[in-house]
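Appendix C reproduces, verbatim, an entry submitted by the partner laboratory led by Prof. M.T., so that reviewers can inspect both the input and the predicted structure.
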Amino acid sequence: MKCPSVCLVFLLIVVGCAQTPQRVYPIPVWTPVLPAPKELPRADGYFDYLVAQIELRANQIDAAVEAYRGALKREPRNPLILTELAALYVRQGNIEGALKMAEEAITHDPFYEPAYMLLGQLYAGLGRNRKAIESYEQVISMNPSNENAYLLLGALYAQEGRFGKAMEVFDRLRVLLPDNPVALYYKARVFLDIKFYDQAESVYQEVLALDPTFENALLDMAYIQEVTDRNRDAEKTYQRIISFNPGSVQAYTRLGNLYMRQGKADEALEQFGKLLKLNRKDIESRLKIGIIHLQQKDYEAAIRDFTHLLKDQPQYDQALYYLASTYEEQGDMDQAVLSFRLISQNSPLWLTAQVRLALLFSRMKDYESGERVLEEVIAKQPDAADAYLYLAAMLEEQEKYAEALKVLERGIQVAPQEPDLHFRKGVILDKLNRKHEAVDAMQKVLLIEPRNAHALNFIGYTYAELGIHLLEAKEFIKAALEVEPEDGYIIDSLAWVYFKLGQYRKALETIEEAVKRVPRDPVIHEHLGDIYQALGKTRQALEAYRKALEFQHAEPDKVRRKMELLQ
């Protein structure tokens, strides 16, 4: 068995999977409809109403509000004045006042459509979706041809996860607007949100048959093509968008990201270069160009990219982080340390940067500085479980097991549900030869994660090593293999249990499978030698022991003694 150790290497995630379209439905902005003559204020309020219109055209919102209030004093029950004043309150940020005005409007006129439309948006903005849905349904019952009400209602149903209802609404809109692709587009988005990619793609094709340049539909199509591993089709779709819209920032960005994920550095650089021609201040594209140069190990170019970016944005944390990473890869540790330290504590990257800094000191064998960095992190963020893990790993690397154990116990006090802390505690206790306590620690891992394959394997292997609970050990290891059936180390553990049970032929069959998966592990070859020896196959046992030594067994003297006994 081989226990997973805390890796002292931090992997940079440059570009993740295809960019998921946000569940954001383009919502039409509410605008007051032109009032019918019968809705206009009476003569005594009409002057103030006109003044309000004049102020509104001049964008004098506060003055327009005062004029509307004047009109409202003369006609306090007029739904048009109440609704338009509510809309102005929204522009002022007075949402509570707007809601009060719009609700009052429908008490005076229960069939005033613009008030219900405004209320729908107000309720939705406040997260009161049920009330918003009721408002839009009321509008549709009064005016079945109100296109915006269908769009807003369908979008709300989709955002609530009520996809069947959303489909019904968009289908009704489709009947209302048979030649308009918008209703179909929203229907496709619902399929996309529930990951019914085939259905979504089919509906998008209908959208594009009506409007071949519907950019949002094409962007969503390209996303589907990416997540279904049709990268070449996605490239063509992005290029199609660019052919009719050379200024499409989204198409260039997504195409560039796609090339990055495929490892097509030159093609990605070309796309981000085009984005910079559209906007020289596009810091995201400038950052990605630097990351590509870093991936290509063109360190001088990467340093130049990040440094120039930092001249314009001195506190840009991602640029500082990748600049530090570049210096580290280049071997300029002093500059790497300086750059990591420049990342502000307010940055989301600060904790990651501090861990990287500590690991950098560890690589330089400056453990004291690395430990100090992590202790400072813990002092500032006591609940940062990773800081305890990395500090314990650093102490473990120096064989300071008792100190590492104390650090892990501190971490468990602040993060008792963090399984990795309990797992590392078990590993350290095992190294201190406190086997039963190590098993107790692993049992706590299983209370948090019952299918943690490594904890299951650890317990089973430890029982086998101790020669106790062997049938229970076999069940633990078989449970681990249900989670990780191809893990050679777990297969080795099962072979070792069979060995301890005296089932040598079964042990041999099993460990041969382990060797296939992990052909250069010294402990597995030692186990193989022990099994051959038990079967009386001396020559094969000696060969297995020789390989254990060849692959740098941690206890070579123990292996040599086994060989001497056979010679």
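The radius of gyration is 34 Å. Additional entries are available on request from the coordinating office.
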